[in-house]
Specification:
With 450 residues, the protein is α/β, with parallel strands linked by helices. It has 16 helices and 16 strands. The protein has a seven-stranded parallel sheet, with helices on both faces. InterPro entries: ALG1-like, Glyco_trans_1.
């Protein structure tokens, strides 16, 4: 393919959030760098960005926004103060970079991002490109008493509608959102750019699974093997709660190993972990009644966010026998590997607009991990029930899936047959990665508009 960006041009990506936890925008940056762009990324840096970006010292520069100070104001005044602070911080960062040929902004959050970026592009004669992940006003409505009828939500929607419609180009994450932007926002030039896994998300062999279990066992007791004084006599070189390496370096699963359930979250209101807790409580009760048929279940929840402490308090009160929890904070490489080492993924994202798709499922599929996902309007664009995973709408349905999947684990003939169907379909999904998908759908759009 002929390279679009010759000679090198300047591009800017704006994320009014943590850059390290904005994978899609980081992937955009990596793709632009591959096509000879100089990329400035503006956002908060609470976690480490991708190593690929850190290595590009001359071509990729990260400009950190100043965090909003904690002030003792009323909620409304806090919101006004936050908006003003972020506006000034964003403007300062924008005018500190070389003039970009185009500016790619993530929405949400759209306040104050869309307005500031629009006027900046107007002044600097840069092109404005919006990547629609969801809608700001629907997320805002989650915390409002009157929901979307709230005056602030209606004002947020108007801002998104007015300034969003002025962009030169648009990406979105689903066909359903493309249709909604066309029919209800009068934005017709929207290109669907599905999230796809990068090459970092891959299935792994048992040796790599053992390595990640060994690494995590140094920090988390849930991965440690029960003490055994005669491991040497048994021919075991090293052991975890799930695997063991023999003296001939052959790695094998333990016959009575626990099962691993994994979920990733930002701990925000659009994920109801109460559903998972109730489903696991039902699993616990069922497993206690039939202990020979159901394994102990380790539930791994990764990520950090505003509701994590509340959830930790709830599980701290539980005295379960068959279910345990661990909430590690992992670097990107370990996160990819642990997804591939798990037995089943759970996604509780339900979408405030019903129009976006959870990237965590894309990551899990990239690793060959089947998923139980909360069902909403456009989820079928990603999760195909009984083809690559399961869907549920309440804790009873999730519990049924858990009981069915883990009954007589790992030797259930029916489950293993279903797993083979999932693996085949997921291999087809893995055939198209982010890089190829971006080159097919996004590169031409930049060429057309820029």
């Amino acid at each position: 393919m002929e390279d679009l960006f010759l000679p090198a041009i300047n591009a800017c990506i704006v994320v009014l959030g943590d850059i390290g936890r904005s994978p899609r925008m980081q992937y955009h940056a990596c793709s632009l760098l591959e096509h000879n762009c100089n990329v400035d990324i503006i956002g908060y840096q609470e976690t480490e960005p991708l190593e690929e970006l850190s290595r590009q010292h001359g071509k990729c520069k990260i400009h950190c926004l100043t965090p909003v100070p904690d002030v003792n104001f009323t909620p409304k005044l806090k919101l006004i103060f936050k908006t003003i602070w972020q506006s000034l911080s964003l403007l300062r960062a924008l005018f500190s970079i070389n003039r970009p040929k185009f500016l790619l902004v993530q929405n949400p959050p759209g306040i104050p991002t869309l307005m500031i970026c629009y006027f900046y592009c107007l002044i600097m004669r840069s092109k404005l490109v919006i990547d629609w992940h969801n809608y700001t006003y629907t997320i805002l409505a989650l915390s409002m008493k009157d929901g979307e009828r709230n005056l602030l939500c209606r004002f947020a929607r108007w801002l998104e509608y007015y300034f969003g419609g002025k962009a030169d180009a648009h990406f979105c994450v689903t066909k359903a959102m493309q249709m909604d932007l066309n029919n209800n926002w009068n934005i017709s030039n929207v290109i669907v750019l599905y999230d796809r896994p990068t090459s970092r998300f891959q299935p792994i062999d048992l040796y790599k699974k053992h390595d990640i279990f060994m690494k995590l066992s140094k920090s988390y007791s849930q991965f440690q093997a029960e003490t055994c004084d005669d491991l040497e006599k048994m021919g075991v070189k090293e052991s975890t709660a799930f695997t063991q390496k023999l003296h001939n370096d052959i790695v094998q699963y333990k016959a009575d190993r626990n099962a691993i359930l994994i979920s990733s979250t930002s701990w925000t209101p659009d994920e109801d972990f109460g559903i998972l807790l109730k489903a696991l409580e039902a699993y616990e009760n069922n497993a206690l009644q039939h202990p020979q048929d159901f394994p102990n279940l380790l539930c791994i929840i990764t990520g950090k966010g505003p509701q994590k402490d509340e959830f930790l308090g709830k599980i701290g009160k539980m005295k379960w026998v068959k279910v345990s929890f661990v909430m590690p904070w992992l670097d990107f490489e370990d996160y990819c590997t642990l997804l591939a080492a798990a037995d089943l993924g759970v996604c509780l994202h339900w979408s405030s607009s019903g129009l976006d798709l959870p990237m965590k499922v894309v990551d899990m599929f990239g690793c060959g991990l089947p998923v139980c996902a909360y069902n909403f309007k456009c989820l079928n664009e990603l999760v195909k029930p009984h083809q690559n995973g399961f869907v549920f709408e309440n804790h009873q349905q999730l519990s049924e899936h858990l009981n069915s999947w883990f009954e007589k684990f790992p030797n259930n003939t029916n489950t293993n047959a279903t797993k083979q169907v999932f693996i085949k379909n997921l291999q087809e999904f893995q055939g198209l990665r982010w890089r190829e998908n971006w080159n097919t759908h996004a590169l031409g759009i930049f060429n057309k508009y820029l």
